[in-house]
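ugh ok fine here u go
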Amino acid sequence: MFARSITIDQSASKPFRQFLSILSALRIAPNAAPRHTKPAYGQAFNGGLKLDEIEERSTLIARTGTWLDRIEFLYLRVLRAMLLVGATVLLICALVWAATSVTRILRSPDSVAERPSVVSANELQESGLKMSSSASSNAALNKDFREQRSNYDSFLRRYYSLYRTRYQPNLRTDDKTLAIGEFDDLTINSSARLASIRKGELDFAVDKKDLDTFLPVIVTASSSKSTDDRLSKYRLATKKPVATQVQRTRTETRRGWDPYSENCPAWYESPIGCAVNRQVVVPYSETVKVMRYPDGIASPNEILKSYQDRYFGLLAERRRTNADKASSERQDIVAGQATGWGGLSQSVMIVGAFLVLMFFFLLVAIERHQRRIAALLP
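structure:
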């Protein structure tokens, strides 16, 4: 009944061999007519499929399956590489973020120290800016008063020696020569400093350190060429009359009404009171000529006092700036600690994402190994 059986070539591809096995099981001859022929069906397919047509279609199916296998294999490799790279990047980010967060958490605000404030001698000779002296006010009186008095007296003697050596010889004949007590009142005012220490408004240790630092600076500034030039200009300068406006007052007699006066007849009649003379102080301005030195000329006492005021003014300003910087750094550390704890939680989430990616990576790897094993099995 059947013309021939189908011989399966073992060298053919797997899908083609499966297709030929099905044909062999059905025992359909390539050139045999079916049992129930339908002319319309046979005519539509030109009398049925031939073996060479089946082989061509099987070959096309096999090639398509091979290309799909290759594309799937390439896709799995790319997916595996992407998962591996992504997981590695996440792991590195988690480690860096965790290290940064731990570093921020371990920093302590107490580790920030205020920078020391320093004023150089050159800065004292710059602009003639006048600034008042100020000192730190977090004090406690734990020192003996006699020791403090002795310390200020010792500093005053050295300071006064500088004044007598560098500044007093440049005074003019009509200038007043300062004694050591007057020099004290003009410069450091040790009595006021001791009173502030007793009240707890001044720290003796800080003030002593400031004065000990100030003396070498003022010695350097006093020995500079700029100071010599200013002292020379003062010695050679002459006063000139300068017209200026001054405010004065005078007393004038003015007549007015006093409702409480009874020194007139009929004072009780309306309006009650009497007309009286009053002494009234009247302000007025007057142009006068005064003898003054030209602008930019200062006496030795004024030069020395301006150096001292500028030194302590700059010192106080820089201490405030350094204190503000230290406070800002401490606040940054506190904020960094809060950010660090948040960063640690983010690192934990990144590690979780890393584990999820590694799970998918293992699934891809298992699928890849199963395909290799399936290819090796008969």
